[in-house]
Amino acid sequence: MKTDSSKRFSTGFILLLVIGSAFFLGYRQGEKNVPAELIVTELQNKDTGKPELVDFSPFWQAWNVINEKFVTAATSTTDREKVYGAIEGLAKSLDDPYTVFFPPVESKAFETEISGQFEGVGMELGIKDDVLSVVAPLKDTPAFRAGIKSGDKIIKINDTLSADMTIEAAVKMIRGPRGTSVRLTIAREGKNEPLEITIVRDVINIPTIDTEVKQNIANGDDNKANNPWQNDIYVIKLYNFSANSSNLFREALRGFMESGSHKLILDLRGNPGGYLEAAVDMASWFLPAGKIVVSEEYAKGTEPTIHRSRGYNIFNDNLKMIILINEGSASASEILAGALREHNIAKLVGTKTFGKGSVQELIKITSETSLKLTIARWLTPLGHSISKEGLSPDYLIKLTTKDADIKRDSQMDKAVEILNGI
């Protein structure tokens, strides 16, 4: 009996062990089959807004491996910071330098920067050929006075290399309180060695417009007496497309009309752009109602938005017009120049424009974070992409070092020659 009892006990124990082992193996196997995101218990709303056709298992698998095996530093990364980092990586994967995710601190700083006056050096930055570049220094700003030029490539900011740096990160490093300085190492076309330029920051007041009349010295005294403006040329220099630029441009055109001249030079060199509506409004002074100024091309499946002239169209066929452009002409400058060239209103003189033809929207992701996202690209009236191609001039004229040494503006001189029929 004792032997039978021992056998039953042994058999029962073995059976219990087998059942337990089977349960454990089944549990482990079942654990492997559990979707990776269900193992993540520290996050909420993991499925909210989740696309149905995207396999997120690699992301959640990576999340779990990091949590399980990463040797944490003295200051560990929070789960929220991991999420923000993932969104930053998602934005970067689009390979668009103008699409950027702003965590809380950066989001607040960006909203402050675009709201009004700021302190810094006074230049517009962009990404050109994957390199941080100067679109244009603004007139009478520290950058302008220090000799920064459109097209300069920024290699270092102080001692920090700019490679892979976002525009926003660069702006954050370059801006600062009035009276402080920043050191830029730049590469410039025509220079074999990098240049190091130190700029003292100041309050930046952005200029908008200047006008002047270029007297035609070939004009005889008799002709001057009969019509002193007959052969003179009116010049409008537009520095940006700000909120009040449309009104100022209208006043400048009034001055042009009152001058009696029919020769106009619109100087958009170094103009980094601004409001789309300002460019459309300015083009409307030269175009009949309904003519296309620019089209906005959106994501697939969305009809483009076509911006048309409002038809102020105050000029007759007598108008002769040249637009000056260079590598610092961007965004709204390219819209206006492209529209007036393709509608045969003006010829373009200078060098190829920057090629910044996209639209960004600042979208709130949470109450504290935002995403600056490229939502559209601009096309000229004939359908050319400004982003991909920029604008090539009808007359390619480059400013040389000799021009700078003797203070000669060969691009302006060429415009005057064309308008005078030389």
Please give the CATH class of the largest domain: Alpha Beta
The strand order across the widest sheet is 10-11-12-15-16-19
Strand content: 15-25%
Alpha carbon gap, first and last residue: 127 Å
Secondary structure tally, helices = 14
Question: What overall form do the CA principal axes indicate?
Answer: globular
Number of strands: 19
Domain unit count: 2
**Structural class given helices, strands, pairing?**
alpha+beta
Notes on the structure:
- By secondary structure, the protein is of the alpha+beta class.
- The chain has 2 domains: 119-204, PDZ domain (Pdz3 Domain); 209-419, Alpha-Beta Complex (2-enoyl-CoA Hydratase, Chain A, domain 1).
- 34% of the residues lie in helices and 23% in strands.
- It contains 14 helices and 19 strands.
- The protein has helices at residues 2-33, 36-39, 57-69, 79-92, 104-113, 142-145, 167-174, 221-226, 245-259, 276-283, 332-342, 386-389, 401-405, 410-419, and strands at 100-102, 118-120, 123-128, 131-137, 153-157, 160-161, 181-187, 195-200, 202-204, 209-214, 233-238, 263-267, 292-297, 305-308, 320-325, 347-350, 358-364, 370-379, 395-396.
- Strands 10-11-12-15-16-19 form a 6-stranded mixed sheet, sandwiched between helices. Strands 1, 13, 14, 17 and 18 form a 5-stranded antiparallel sheet that branches.
- Strand 5 (153-157) and strand 6 (160-161) form a beta hairpin.
- Helix 9 packs parallel to helix 10 (276-283) and helix 10 (276-283) packs parallel to helix 11.
